[in-house]
Amino acid sequence: MATTLDFLVIPTYNVQTLGIADNSTYDTPPTSPTMQITVPGFGVVSLPFNINDFNIYNSTSLGITNVGASLLPLPDGIYYFTYSIAPAYDNYVNKTIMRIDQIQEKFDSAFMKLDLMECDWAVKKQQKVTLNSIYYLIQGSLAAANNCSIDTANKLYNQANRMLNNFIRNNCNCYGNNYLTNPY
Prior knowledge:
By secondary structure, this protein is α+β, with helices and mostly antiparallel strands. It has two domains: 7-99, Immunoglobulin-like (Sandwich), CATH 2.60.40; 101-175, no CATH class. The protein has three helices and seven strands; from the N terminus they run βββββββααα. The protein has a four-stranded antiparallel sheet. It has a three-stranded antiparallel sheet with strand order 1-2-5, with no helix packed on it. Strand 6 (77-84) and strand 7 (92-99) form a beta hairpin.
């Protein structure tokens, strides 16, 4: 059996952690498995990687915060990964992912504040349309990143984030005649 390197980035459903599972097959156990991660806005860090295991990284292990400091949410954006093993460092695998955990948490919070049972259907309809538009921009960002269109992924993410911030900031919970409709 030949060594075949592979790993999976697994959702942890926590903005402070990044989960990576080893999905490799090894002919002999490697001596120095290493995961190199490029964190958006912070640069590259090389970390030990536990084979045949689920590896969890946080802001301290990724070099964003100091040991002993409070953990911070990991930034959203494009992450680059390179998993390599020794003694043959020419045996490696690269992957790129778009992390959206922070914006997804913000979206979920905005969605849960939406009173879906509100009687003023026109207000709720507009809020649902706005949230759907934001959701599609987030999904478009993921699709663009998955197809190596990094600039498009970042533009869609930034547009979704601006719209979501505006939605949260201006969500007036309008009722009745406070809602203006366009007669045209």
